[in-house]
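Hi team,

As requested, here is the filled-out complex form for the PMV run. I kept the field names the same as last time so the parser does not choke. Let me know if anything looks off before we queue the next batch.

— J.
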Amino acid sequence: MSEFHNPGLVIEPGRVRSGKIIWRSPSNIALIKYWGKYGTQMPANPSVSFTLDAAHTETTLEYGPKMTEKKGVSVDFLFQGLTNKVFSDRIEKFLLQLLPVFPFLSQIELTIFSSNSFPHSAGIASSASAMSALALCLCSMEDELFGTLQDDEAFDRKASYVARLGSGSACRSIYPEVALWGEITESSKSSNLYAIPWGNHLHTEFKNMHDDILIVDKAEKSISSSVGHQLMDSNPYSETRYMTVQLRMKRMLMALKTGDMELFGELTEQEAMTLHGLMMLSEPSYMLLRPGTLAIIEEVRRFRQETKLPLYFTLDAGPNVHLLYPHKYNSKIGEFVRSNLLKHCYENSFIPDQMGSGPQQL
Ligand code: PMV
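And here is what came back:
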């Protein structure tokens, strides 16, 4: 039984209260990527990410006594104000899986309203912000009903654990600035079960990093992340990946700590290319990069060579490009983005984002 399973979290019959909880939770961008998993959403390797700010989900959870005889969980889920069957089914399955963690979920009726700050169709992965916002609401509900999560560290850890079960990368969205997920020898607190905060290890050079998310293509991905993770099981290069990423992680943590911007950039870009290289090398092979993605990468490299400014790219599991750079170069780089890069984007669209201070209860 996991340390988070708690059969004692049951409400006395007839004492079910009503309540409402709202959390806003951000997305995050991995520098060292989680790609490949085993068991129940356990990462094949450790990952580290910047927490974002503008790209976030706001989730309202309303709960009250259960009025129906329905067994299991009773939930209504509305996305951007509308019923969404695909999302509802996913949420119901997720909550059922959480019954050993929150047994009281079978005693109440839930209505969940969720909305994103960015268009759902923008091709931006929203599972990290959505699942972390929901996990935070569930932990707040436990605390309101039982007073069991008064300690901030325990609260965050449980929220991160629950978010991970919804979507692996979501466990990192719980913390401000930087989060680390997966066991590493450098920290005895690190775990495969949840992420831990890593902002205290961040050199001032990296405070207020920008992340301009360039929307190259807003179409839904042809291969979902969960299929992508699965394909790592049969990828002939996966063992090499799991071995080499350990050293890359150590070097990345060193770069973040010492303020080595150049090393940070080099490793960040290597990771982006490795992620997409692994997709192309999987069997069957697939590719999520678009011509616009490659054009942007080439332009970024040329700009860096010419100007010597620290502008670096990374990629998620999709064609959109994340541009990372320190705040002090905002105006020069902003000009370059507008004049040279937006033409490669879908309808010139991008989301100017930056490192954020983590989720907020509203
Ligand atoms: O959390 P998932 O299952 O959607 O996987 C996300 C994987 C990447 O975004 C590609 C990398 C990462 O660490 O966020």
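Two things worth flagging: Residues 216 and 239 are 31 Å apart (CA to CA). Residues 19-200 form a domain with the Ribosomal Protein S5; domain 2 fold (CATH 3.30.230.10).

Thanks,
J.
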